[in-house]
Automatic annotation (TrEMBL):
Signal peptide: none annotated. This is SufE family protein. Gene3D superfamilies: 3.90.1010.10. Coiled coil: none annotated. Belongs to the SufE family. It comes from the Bacteria.
Length: 142
């Protein structure tokens, strides 16, 4: 299990929210996050974003690390892909605006602390892992 003390405060809060839920309530919380995925800013088009093919549904991300002290993360996923949108929204809520160093320090398996493994297929969970891996890669190789 991931040590939550190594997570940025905002991501730790998200993990704590999931820890308070049991069973299907965790899925409901994931769906709530899906509905909260921020819209893309007008100047950012999906076509210019990086696809994450490991995800079961189309997902695109953009990492703006021009200010390494406050990295901006943008995600695009269709409304009909609530699991993927939920994962992206968790990362947006927990990591957007964090420093590059803090994001790079997030354990690759942090999502295991969400307690979704019994409810979500391993293939879908790998999608969340792939999103984080791509974000980290962008921060290491700008």
């Amino acid at each position: 299990m991931t040590e939550t003390s190594r997570l940025p405060a905002a991501l730790s809060e998200v993990v704590a929210e999931f820890a308070e839920m049991q069973g299907q309530d965790k899925l409901q919380l994931l769906l709530e996050f899906a509905g909260e995925l921020p819209e893309l800013p007008a100047e950012l088009e999906e076509a210019s974003m990086e696809p994450v093919p490991e995800c079961q549904s189309p997902l695109f991300l953009h990492v703006d690390a021009s200010d390494r002290g406050s990295v901006r993360l943008y995600f695009s996923a269709p409304a009909e892909a609530p699991t993927t949108r939920g994962f992206a929204s968790i990362l947006a809520a927990g990591l957007d605006g964090q420093s590059a160093a803090d994001i790079l320090a997030v354990p690759d398996d942090f999502y295991s602390a969400l307690g979704l493994a019994a409810l979500i297929s391993p293939l879908r969970l790998r999608g969340m892992s792939a999103m984080l891996a791509r974000i980290k890669r962008r921060l290491r190789d700008p």
